[in-house]
Amino acid sequence: MKSDGGLLTGGASFIGRRRELSTARKALTQGRLLTLTGPGGVGKTHLALRIVEHVQGMFRDGVGVVELGTLETGELLEPAVATALGLHDTGPDPMNALVDYVAGKRMLLVLDNCEHLCTICGRFVDRLLRVAPRLRVLVTSRQTLGVYGERVLPVRPLPVPDPAGPPGEIVRHDSVRLLEDRMAAVLPGFSLAADNAHRVARLAQRLEGVPLAIELAAARLRTMSLDELLRELDRPIDVLAADICAALPRHHSVRATTDWSYGLCSPGEQRLWARLSMFPAGVDLDTAESVCSGDGIDAADVLDLLAGLVDKSVVCCERRGSGLRYRMLESLRAYGGERLAPSDKDPLRGRYVDHYRDLVCDSRIDRLVPDQLERYRRLRVELPNVRVALEACLSRPPLARVGLDIASALWCYWLLAGSLIEGRYWLERGLDLVPEPGRTRATALWVDSTLALRQGDLMRALPRLEECLDLARRPGNEAVLPYAIRTAGVAAFSSGDHERGLSLLRESLALHRAGENLDGVMLNLYYAAAYGSVGHAGKAAEFGEELLDLSEKHHAQISRAYAQLALGVVRWNLGDCRRAEALVTSAAVFTGEVDDRWCLTQCLEVLAWIAGARQDHRRAAGLMGAAHALWQTMGASPERLWYHAAGHERCREQARCALGGRAFATAFRQGTRLGQERAVDYAVAGP
Q1: Of 320, 319, 333, whose CA–CA distance to 113 is shortest?
Q2: I need a surface site. Which of 191, 260, 509, 510 has the fewest CB within 10 A?
């Protein structure tokens, strides 16, 4: 995950901090929790990422970096960490899945920007450390967590020289080296020399060695000389007393330099800086023009204003695919939020919610369209911003219906991303606020039931589903009925009643066909093919072939992969191993590339069955081991899936019988150690 340390430097070189790096390495060797503390802008995140580079070889099971600065609520901490570590479908309790995952691992967990969730993070880290004796945790925060055994490393400003000292002494200070590096970036050919060393030292002293202050000040050299910059910094700056009174002295330079940088912005740049504070995940140009324009900013001027903020190092510009994205360091985003005028807040919030409601609706993955994959990637990038829109809606009852509509429209994203806990969190908050028996509530009920069923939470799913079916049969809600019936069919399979389950799926499919709803038809064909593959393989094959044809005709890549998986399971049950292998191998390659672990794991499982049918039991055991590792990260198992349970059990017993217990265990264990990328290579390499 990207941390805001990368935003601070834009990929620039790391300078200094040798003592801190050495201390951190020793602390992580001797202790289990290290917290880097210090004010915003002092470089905690950048240092943490540098520490990771130095110590990652100590951790056999890797390093997980979780950025928490974009997380608006502590209730999403556990699912956010689980998702960052690759644990999808964690069931109703992500903490238990996390505990199981880290319990035996020698790994480092990095939690970045924890100060706004300090108490919750403290309890969270304490529990993980109690159950995972080889886990180490590195935290960045403006305050300590207060956990027993916590070691604290204060991150202080870089040392500054005496401006009256000799040039040879001045150049040895890290603050001067950082200034020289950043000044050279805006003034090609600049280097420290006898004729400028004292002025650079004075600048470093004026900025008190704070990296963020250095970044902001150096950027001004595009438009003024070094002497002019020093004169500007020496002028009195109106620092807000309320922000300073409780701060440590070293906060003054950060705040003063930020105030100074803000003061040098044009009124339009200041207004845009404040409005951009709404976007924790940054923003592209189209969104900035749509949401941030108006009330003093013309849409045609947004690009020039953004360019000005980039030039001043307030905003970082990074390339994403074929476009550019603009982001701010968390401390600068927080500053912008303080400067957002009260008269701006409500109109900005309204435009923001409208924009992300439209974006989510336009990016639905449950559509038979050629840009499914691009939609999924777009939602992954925009999720922190979407969370802000959801919170804005669900914390204001008049907007609750809009928030519930957004959460429901994301249902397919919640499934593919494995973010079931988060999806249900927003849905259930919305359902509490929208009791009216209309289409919005009915839709949210079947979505919530679908996510609960994926988690194996029948106890919560069935009452929601019963209410949904009741509402869907009322006038005005008829469009919801096919979805409610489809969900009831999945619930019947999950309860062991496959005859009723298939009957309900066929009923739902007929309703979608009658309404000429190809998107609904596509989804029903998948469920009917996959769940019907056991016991109804002949009819399921028809469903699967139709789904594959539909997906290919509409160039829907994600739907095509799931069609290949479902049809592969069907062909396996019909005894056609060659076609099953071709279909599932193709799906495995695609889902491995796009990191769709839910589909990939099932592909590995089916390829293990096929290897076993060819009497290649060692390969079958290895593939089952590779699948097992992924099942574990998702908190799932093949025994919980109707169409996997029998094949899994048969393959395992045949391999164990053919190889013997010890050889089977060895091959299985080797498979678990492959890792996702090597597992895909192994799976598609063939015998």
Answers
A1: 333
A2: 191
Q: Beginning with the edge strand found earlier in the chain, give each strand of the sheet holding 316-320 in spatial order.
A: 283-284, 323-327, 316-320
Q: What is the CATH number of the domain that holds 127?
A: 3.40.50.300
302: in domain: yes
Looking at the predicted structure, is the pLDDT value of residue 651 above 90? yes
Residue among 41, 114, 111, 118 at smallest CA distance from 335: 41
- Dihedral pair phi/psi, residue 648, rounded to 5°: -65, -50
577 burial (CB, 10 Å; 0-12 / 13-18 / 19+) is middle
The pTM for the full model equals: 0.80
Domain end residue (candidates: 305, 340, 375): 340
CB 461 within 8 A of CB 452: yes
Residue 446, in any domain of the structure = no
Q: Which of 484, 491, 476 is nearest to 511 (CA)?
A: 484
Is residue 379 in a domain?
Answer: no
Closest CA to 640 of 419, 415, 454, 424: 454
Number of folded domains in the chain?
3
- 8 A C-beta contact, residue 423 and residue 410: yes
Name the residue among 192, 144, 184, 146 with its Cα closest to residue 168. Answer: 192
Contacts of 191 (CB under 8 A, 6+ apart): 180, 184
Q: What is the pLDDT of residue 235?
A: 67
- Of the candidates 321, 340, 359, which is a domain's last residue? 340
Domain hosting 33: range is: 18-154
Q: What is the pLDDT of residues 126-169, one digit of tens each?
A: 999 999 899 999 999 988 898 989 999 999 889 889 888 888 88
Please tell me which residue, 594 or 560, carries the higher pLDDT value. Answer: 560
Instruction: Say if 199 falls within a structural domain.
Output: no
CB atoms within 10 A of CB 186: 15
